[in-house]
Amino acid sequence: MIKCPFCGKRHTIPIQYGMPTHEAFLDEQVGKIKLGGCIISEDNPSRYCKDCHKTFGKNFKNFGILEKVFFFIGGFGGDNHFIDISLESTSYSLTYRYLLPFDSKRKNEPIEQKRTLTEKEVAYLHGIIDKLYICEWARSSIDKDILDGTQWSIEIKYQGRRTIKKFGSNKFPPYFSELKKAMSKLSRGKF
């Protein structure tokens, strides 16, 4: 089962569009599918969560050319990791920056490393954005009961569109651990 990017539950079902058949009505009655209506569009969501009643799985491939991805995870008392990926030219680059905690006994010098991404890594990045439904996450995920801790953000920029920004503090979307693993893989295990 596919996990809902909003509530994290795995009670999700496909959404079927178009003129429904008798079998489709029966499948909806037993909870196998959700009927989405007769209008078929590339922007229609593909999944429905039976727990939180939200739809997800929109096709962001038509958003155009992916230009930039920025990812941050860190906090006041911990290590801070920044990944800046630029896909604006034919030279795909990843810049990784690392900053020690402010109260660290170690020398507090930032580390910066740059490298070129392979075509395979760029394809992996595109796949992760779609597979983890990042563009559909809530804009903010904040636990107001915790003052210090872990902050995070991700920004995704498509050519000719506004930047999609998601951020949080001590609260994480259901697919966040998968995003963190993917960013660590792209930065070659830096965190």
Question: Rg, please?
Answer: 19 Å
User: Termini distance?
Assistant: 29 Å
Global morphology? globular
Question: What is the level-2 CATH architecture name of the largest domain?
Answer: 2-Layer Sandwich
Report the order of strands and helices: EHEEEEEEEHEEEH
Strand content: 25-35%
The CATH superfamily of the largest domain is known as Mago nashi
CATH class of the largest domain: Alpha Beta
Structural class: alpha+beta
β-strand number = 11
Please tally the helical runs, counting DSSP H or I stretches of 4 or more residues: 3
Helix content: 10-25%
* CATH level 3 topology of the largest domain: Mago nashi protein
Would you kindly provide a written description of the structure presented here, covering whatever features stand out?
There is one protein chain. The strands form two sheets. A seven-stranded mixed β-sheet has the order 8-7-6-5-10-11-9, with no helix packed on it. Strand 1 (12-17), helix 1 and strand 2 (34-37) form a beta-alpha-beta unit. The protein has two domains: 12-59, no CATH class; 63-186, Mago nashi protein. The protein is of the alpha+beta class and 191 residues long. It has helices at residues 22-29, 119-131, 176-186; strands spanning 12-17, 34-37, 47-49, 55-56, 66-74, 80-86, 93-99, 111-116, 140-142, 151-158, 164-169. The chain is globular. It starts with 11 loop residues before the first strand and ends in a 5-residue tail after the last helix. The mean pLDDT is 90.
